[in-house]
Amino acid sequence: MKRFCFLCALFFLSGLARAGVYETLYKDLPVPLPEPELPAIPDRTVSLGDYGAVGDGITDNTAAFEKAVASLTRQGGGHLVVPAGIFLTGPIVLKDRIDLHLERNAMILLSPDKTAHLSKGKVVPGISASKRKDVSITGEGIIDGNGQWWRGVKRGKVSDVEWNAFLRMGGTVSVDGKLWYPFGLDAYPDIAGTAEAQEKMRVHMVRFMDCERVLVQGVTLQNSPKFHLIPQRCEDVVVEGVTVRCPWNAQNGDGIDISQCRRVLVTRCHVDVGDDGICMKGGAGAAALQSGPCSDILIVDNQVFHAHGGFVIGSEFSGGMVRIVVQRNTFSGTDMGLRFKSAPGRGGKCEDIFISDTYMSDIQGEAVVFETSYADRPVGHDDAVASRVQEFLPEFSDIRISRVTCRGARTAVAASGSRAMIHDIVLEDCTFFYTETATRISDPAMIRLSNVRLETY
Q1: Of the candidates 104, 325, 423, 456, which lies 20 to 30 Å from 66 by C-alpha distance?
Q2: For residue 340, how far is the Cα from the chain centroid?
Q3: Is the pLDDT of residue 137 over 70?
Q4: Does the domain at residues 46-143+205-455 carry the CATH identifier 2.160.20.10?
């Protein structure tokens, strides 16, 4: 009876989605956006337990996932149900018309053994789909990336108790004592010759590449070795009601990265991560132009807690950003609120970007910031050299930001760069309570402030 009800609910929800269940979100937008089409998953279900899986947190279930996906694929697709339990596994590869559904109290725990993620000498994401149609991850369960076994740690970002816990895992401390690497661990083998080389091999947790009709709904994604959720070069993507979380100091712990996708909805998500919260990426250099821009994106009714930025464009967007609407989002405790970052060699053009009804509190740096000399600072590198390339320049323009309310930011609005790279930006009907600096803008012509209230103590 339980399985019958589950199937009926999925079938009903799927039918509603294709009939326009998100229609109300797309009404009265400042620029018309097409609603993404959701996956069509066949009305068929199998349980992971039917393929020999054991949810004891110890048994390796990689083969069980492979068998279950292969079985559903032969039948034309359907729902792979993960029941309550802790299912340790290596990488999971999804195929056409398959929904990975995690029931309440189900946890998929990615193996801390890095060799399990090697395929033909390369590391592969925890859960992935490439060049597939109609794929989804749904339910009320948790996907845990076991990121502590992958990430380097900066001594200055952890307490003595946390630092000693890492040392008990084994690993390698840098000569100056400022870094710990999960290299030379007591429990698991290495997959590279040096700590620095292995650091560059960290895997993303969930990645969809070149897929059509993707849904991620309801699940919790946590503790990724690197980025948590990356749809890349996908069309028709919905991310709804997802919780993304990891330690605040997790290096490169991005939450949701939308990369060169078309027709995307991100709604009712809760993000609390170690790097950018909800981020738009558009590739770097000439290759990005071939894939085209990030376009027709709606980001609405989300909450972002710790993150380097609540909503972010960059740093790579050579393919461009077109028709992005960001509405009714809350950022509480992020390093920056609305963050636009890039550099020569990485940049492109923004067109039709509308951000409104944004609520911020306890922002550690700038509430709104534009930067055009951004440089990466990987683990082990305190300094970074800005790019000297003079092509693919960022052009932050045609951006309208309205009805922002911010209580507590060090700086309300900041912009650094040339007028050629930052122009035609409008902030209107906003209120900022800042603690140190009202505005820090290198050229007043970059940004027009209209009915903007700036207050401090």
Answers
A1: 104
A2: 16
A3: yes
A4: yes
